[in-house]
Amino acid sequence: MSKGRSPEPLDFFIWTVEDVGLWLEEINLGSYRQVFEENGVNGEYLESLSMFTTEQILRFIRRCHMKWGDFITLCKELRRIKVACLKGEQEVRKPWWAPSCLSVVFVRLAKRNRQSRVVSMKLEP
């Protein structure tokens, strides 16, 4: 992800630690950015939150020094992104890292495979 540019929601599960930090700023949880970076929280880790046990969730909250309300906000925002991906509401942009000759192919494939990319995500409240 290029510096200062908001991460692409469609691809949140491949976000880097820096992308997660930018997203936290975007959802008004920027005060946790440094602690998330220190703990290496990336998109793959955020995706796995929905499969955490209660004990793992409590450990995460303690390690990141999160307030319950902020953790709930984090979960709601993650759920919002997942639902938007499933409904096909996320805009697909060419990836910043792809050479221009491949980015058109990527966007076409992403649009076609949008639902298959997120089908394994749990959406239970």
From TrEMBL:
Domain of life: Eukaryota
SAM domain span: 15-50
Gene3D superfamilies in the cross-refs: Transcription Factor, Ets-1
Record-given protein name: SAM domain-containing protein
PROSITE patterns: SAM_DOMAIN
UniProt cross-references to PANTHER family, sorted A to Z: STERILE ALPHA MOTIF (SAM) DOMAIN-CONTAINING PROTEIN (PTHR47626)
InterPro entries linked to this entry: SAM, SAM/pointed_sf
